TrEMBL record:
The chain crosses the membrane at residues 12-31, 56-79, 91-112, 132-151, 163-185, 191-212, 258-276, 282-301, 322-345, 351-368, 389-407, 413-435. PANTHER family: MULTIDRUG AND TOXIN EFFLUX PROTEIN MATE FAMILY, VIRULENCE FACTOR MVIN. Belongs to the multi antimicrobial extrusion (MATE) (TC 2.A.66.1) family. It is found in: Cell membrane. InterPro entries: MATE_fam (IPR002528), MdtK-like (IPR048279), YsiQ (IPR047135). It is a multi-pass membrane protein. Its main location: membrane. Keywords: Cell membrane, Membrane, Transmembrane, Transmembrane helix, Transport. It comes from the Bacteria. This is MATE family efflux transporter.
Length: 461
């Protein structure tokens, strides 16, 4: 085995892949945090309304991940198998497919925004905020479709630092835009929610343009430009074989969360605002877990493509231990600091009291959620994408949704009842995913013929 070959594979250590992703995910969380924090200066009602709309936007992101997530796994396996031409063709097909899909979703969100928003029983003020946001951000969703796709394929090719830099730039632009339009800085008009929507749309558009340029200059593309505009059944099939089940699991989750949000609107604007604030704080708990799950998907995909099944089996457990350890340490810190953290968002004592109680329940919820994020990503990377979505649909709709209503609404426990239902959901699925990985059934699910001419050497640190 040549020394050059050893070096290129050694660079694929889990740590080398994950740390830039950790920064990227942290920046994404900071973006959400800053949006909510700055909107809190407008009103708790503005926060509540955008919380509802962002639930819809997350639903569309899941739809875009049909292609983005599938492409990332397929590209990672092709790279592990040392098939550069196939990796490049997969990238081209994924970009064209998601661009067309993104344009379609943008049109649907804008033209059907009224019937969509009517599902949430919003008051007149909240409805007005949500309507404006959906027109501006919803109309430019196609930019996010391409951002997610190119992010995924760049990370699969090991360019996680490049993704981190673009994410940093996008977040800085968004935060500056929020500040300018919310506080009227530099003589700009104070347009609140409208300004936040404009800042979000413009930052994503600029990020998309930078990523397209980066894709043509930084990635070793081995196909002609015209081949990017020719959809190939073989590559589309492989992308969707992973993408549809994988996104299906996320789709089920987001649909269930939308239904639960409808339940919470019954409890009133205070409960809705509390949920938005609490979820943003809980995002701090899952930053490392989300980064580890993304890194795990790339890492396991490359190991599976290289035929290193036993090594992949052991590495998942190592990554899971790190994710659980970090997540729980952060969970304890955030829970202890709950009162102080909530006071940054609101002065409403009811929101602060309820929110800090929900953070305590987060200590129980977090190990289950972290395990799901990491193990499901590893299963997906191996090609075993159907089992997580089937179990996800069964448990989410058989436990999370009905028990949220039964405990939260019927028995009157409010958000605490909803959180108990979420805990049951995450833990049941976590146990199922753990035993699926342990069974090693996933080792027969690879999408590509494994490489046989090199070994994978990865540092244990």
């Amino acid at each position: 085995m040549s020394s050059a070959n050893k070096t290129s594979i050694k660079q694929l250590s889990l740590f080398a892949i994950t740390w830039p992703i950790f920064i990227e995910v942290s920046l994404q969380a900071l973006l959400q945090f800053s949006d909510v924090f700055m909107l809190s200066f407008v009103s708790d009602e503005a926060v509540a309304s955008i919380g509802v709309v962002n639930q819809i936007m997350m639903f569309t992101f899941v739809l875009f991940n049909f292609t983005a997530m599938g492409a990332g796994v397929v590209v990672a396996q092709y790279i592990g198998a040392k098939k550069q031409k196939d990796a490049s063709l997969t990238i081209g097909n994924a970009i064209v497919l998601n661009l067309l899909f993104g344009l379609l979703i943008s049109a649907i969100v804008v033209f059907l925004r009224h019937p969509i928003l009517s599902l949430f029983n919003l008051s007149a003020d909240l409805y007005e905020y949500a309507n404006i946001y959906m027109i501006i951000v919803g109309g430019t969703l196609f930019t996010q479709a391409l951002v997610l796709t190119i992010f995924s394929v760049l990370q699969a090719k090991g360019l996680t630092k490049d993704v981190m830099y673009v994410s940093l730039g996008m977040n800085v632009l968004n935060i500056v835009g929020n500040y300018v339009f919310i506080f009227g800085a530099f003589g700009a008009p104070q347009i609140g929610v409208t300004g936040v929507a404009i800042a979000t749309a413009v930052s994503r558009l600029l990020a998309m343009l930078v990523l397209i340029k980066m894709l043509t200059s930084r990635v070793d593309i081995t196909i002609k430009i015209k081949e990017f505009f020719t959809l190939n059944k073989e590559y589309i099939s492989k992308i969707l074989k992973i993408g549809i089940p994988s996104a299906g699991e996320h789709l089920s989750y987001n649909m269930s969360q939308i239904v639960i949000t409808v339940f919470i609107t019954i409890l009133g604007a205070t409960a809705l605002a509390t949920r938005v604030y609490t979820q943003n704080l809980l995002m701090l708990l899952v930053i490392f877990s989300m980064a580890m799950s993304k890194g795990m998907q790339i890492y396991i995909g490359q190991l599976v493509g290289a035929g290193k099944m036993d090594f992949a089996y052991r590495e998942m457990y190592r990554g899971l231990k790190w994710a659980l350890g970090v997540a729980m340490a952060v969970a304890v810190i955030i829970t202890i600091s709950g009162d102080t953290l909530f006071s940054f968002f609101t002065s409403d004592p009811d929101i602060i009291t309820l929110g800090t109680t929900l953070l305590l329940f987060g200590l129980i919820l977090e190990p289950g959620r972290t395990s799901n994020l990491v193990i499901i990503s590893a299963l997906r990377a191996s090609g075993d994408a159907q089992f997580p979505v089937i179990m996800g649909i069964v448990v989410m709709w058989g436990v999370s949704v009905p028990f949220s209503y039964i405990l939260g609404i019927h028995f009157g426990y409010g958000l605490i009842g909803v959180w108990i239902a979420l805990i049951l959901d995450e833990w049941i699925r976590a146990v199922l995913m753990f035993f699926r990985w342990r069974s090693k059934v996933w080792q027969d699910k690879s999408l590509v013929e494994p490489a046989k001419d090199h070994e994978v050497q990865v540092e244990s640190g």
